[in-house]
Design goal:
Elements (H helix, E strand, L loop, with lengths): L1 E2 L10 E14 L3 H10 L6 H24 L4 E13 L2 E13 L2
Parallel strand pairs: 1-3
Antiparallel strand pairs: 2-4, 3-4
Length: 104
């Protein structure tokens, strides 16, 4: 499955099938020590949260691709991610784009 963030695929003609999407709500048990550190955190990367979001994007992307394949798509154009914090230590991630079928 070809997935691109561009609006078109150079040299390819295709028909639009519709929106393909995949989402996941991901959480991580950071433990009591992490939450205490969060209250006093002044700056810096929270690597465990970054890893959680990376995993969430992979899951959401896989679900989006599976939905596009079920629609008969050959590719997804204009692919985007969105995420939001749904509670402390948990985030929702959605991957979405336009499922297309190649004509030529």
């Amino acid at each position: 499955m070809l997935i691109v963030t561009t609006e078109t695929i150079p040299g390819r003609r295709y028909e639009v099938l519709g929106i393909a999407k995949g989402s996941v709500v991901q959480s991580k048990n950071f433990g009591k020590d992490f939450m205490s550190a969060m209250k006093t955190l002044v700056g810096g990367e929270i690597t465990a949260y970054t890893e959680m979001l990376d995993e969430a994007r992979q899951i959401a992307s896989g679900r989006m691709a599976a939905q596009a394949e079920a629609m008969g798509a050959d590719a997804i154009v204009c692919m985007r991610y969105a995420s939001s914090s749904v509670m402390q230590g948990a985030a929702e991630c959605i991957a979405y784009g336009t499922a297309v079928k190649f004509i030529d």
